[in-house]
Amino acid sequence: MQSFLGSASYYRNHIKNISHITSSLNKLCSKDVIFQITKERRDAYERIKHELTNAPVHILPEFEIPFKLYIDAACIQGLGEALLQREIVYGEPREKLICYISREFKNSEARCEATQTKFLFLVWALEKLHY
């Protein structure tokens, strides 16, 4: 399981909300945990496989063009964010994905109000993305 999660983690910027998806599988790697496959864990495993084989095409960032950062802090277990840029394709403006980032809530963060959570994760995303 650790090997699979390590391989999936290598592509974490290509999988939306990967920390949320892998949370049940990460628990299997803890000490003193009985390795038991549940429906939730099997579904998470299958979803990661699906996401790895069907990941959207990412673009390289162009630093002259403004970035857009979408924050989803409404999830109960964690947050997900997407970094995009507007690109002109065949004369039409389209938002193109650069990367996804995500992580699980820490205990203290799970009790924050929605507005506080969004600002907290905005700061985290800016630090993570180095912008």
UniProtKB/TrEMBL annotation:
Q: Which PANTHER family match?
A: POL PROTEIN, RIBONUCLEASE H
Q: Which Pfam families does the UniProt record give?
A: RT_RNaseH_2
What domain of life? Eukaryota
Q: Which residues form the Reverse transcriptase/retrotransposon-derived protein RNase H-like domain?
A: 38-130
Q: Which residues form the signal peptide?
A: none
The record's annotation in InterPro entries points to: DNA/RNA_pol_sf, Rev_trsase/Diguanyl_cyclase, RT_RNaseH_2, Viral_Replic_Matur_Polypro
Upper taxonomic classification of the species? Eukaryota, Fungi, Dikarya, Basidiomycota, Pucciniomycotina
Protein known as:
Reverse transcriptase/retrotransposon-derived protein RNase H-like domain-containing protein
